């Protein structure tokens, strides 16, 4: 059995399609993605913020700019 289930994890490009250019909030709208619908294993990384360097392949990293708009998405 693989350590990572690609079906439940999804891939970064799928998440980029859903998140890029949107802000994170409580509910969905044309310009907002609901935080509750992010995977359980995620973190939001603001510009120039410190982060741990531990690698968790299943963790979704959501990179936001100074205005809280998603600019990149990756796993790790």
Automatic annotation (TrEMBL):
It holds the Pfam family Inhibitor_I78. It comes from the Eukaryota. This is Uncharacterized protein. It comes from Cyphellophora attinorum.
């Amino acid at each position: 059995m693989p350590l990572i289930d690609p079906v439940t994890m999804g891939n970064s490009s799928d998440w980029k399609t859903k998140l890029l250019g949107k802000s994170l909030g409580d509910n969905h709208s044309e310009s907002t993605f609901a935080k509750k619908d992010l995977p359980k294993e995620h973190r939001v990384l603001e510009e120039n913020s410190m982060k741990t360097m531990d690698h968790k392949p299943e963790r979704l990293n959501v990179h936001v700019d100074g205005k809280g708009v998603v600019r990149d998405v990756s796993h790790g």
